[in-house]
Amino acid sequence: AQSVTQLGSHVSVSEGALVLLRCNYSSSVPPYLFWYVQYPNQGLQLLLKYTSAATLVKGINGFEAEFKKSETSFHLTKPSAHMSDAAEYFCAVSEGTSYGKLTFGQGTILTVHP
Amino acid sequence: GAVVSQHPSRVICKSGTSVKIECRSLDFQATTMFWYRQFPKQSLMLMATSNEGSKATYEQGVEKDKFLINHASLTLSTLTVTSAHPEDSSFYICSAIKDRGNIQYFGAGTRLSVL
User: Fold this and answer.
1) What percent of chain A has pLDDT over 70?
2) Contact A45/B106, CB-based, under 8 Å?
3) Nearest neighbour of A43 by CB, restricted to B32, B42, B106
4) Which of A8, A45, B11, B42 is 20 to 30 A from A108 (CA-CA)?
């Protein structure tokens, strides 16, 4: 069985500061890992994905994430936060199959203040 | 691109009525679609996997007679909430996979409010 834990339901940063959203996963097989962003009353937009290629994955809007197998982590970072980054972020895992179902973490709400 | 359209975006209905939500892949064929439910301030919970031309696979605890899923074509899946009750009020989101790949593309969601 697969699971995802996002540490911190709320993260608050200043505009221009580093963004770090934490995600740890559990999977019995090599996982596919995803970060999605959700704006209020909207669906989810894919930020980036890890599918067993490069461990450092670059996504849209300046976000990146690093897959660390030894730590079972896939933390999301952005060097400099922008006001428009304020949203809820979900980490998700798919258990290795090419079109498997996703298990989502609890979500982290990112607040960016001036 | 890979655009998934979900309709309606918001629906309010009386208790006991049925509501149908449509999920369409606009620019690709989707052999597999997923339906999720999201409660306020919570994560997405997978309800069912919808495969074109076959019966949906429901997650444990999801009533298949309550939440009817039909995937009649490669671009359309529907979720019907039958005899809706206030506890069915939630945000329902669909997703679709393109070309049997590993990325799910999500619709914008449907806010269901049952009075």
Assistant:
1) 96
2) yes
3) B106
4) B11
Triad B2, B5, B11: Cα angle to 5°: 160
Predicted confidence (pLDDT) per residue in B50-84, tens digit: 888 888 999 999 999 999 999 888 899 999 999 99
Residues of B in Cβ contact (< 8 Å) with A32 = 102
The amino acid that residue A113 corresponds to is: H
Nearest CA in chain A to B103: A99
The contacts of residue B95 (CB under 8 Å, 6+ apart) are A43, A44, B4, B33, B34, B36, B104, B105, B106, B107
Tokens of A111: 């607040």
Residue B64 C-alpha from the chain's centroid: 13
Pairing of strands B10-13, B110-114: parallel
Is-contact B53 B36, C-beta < 8 A? no
- pLDDT tens-digit map of A8-29: 999 999 999 999 999 999 987 7
Cα distances from B10 to residues A5, B14, B93, B110, in angstroms, run 30, 14, 12, 5
Give the residue among A91, A92, A83 at the shortest CA–CA distance from A111.
Answer: A83
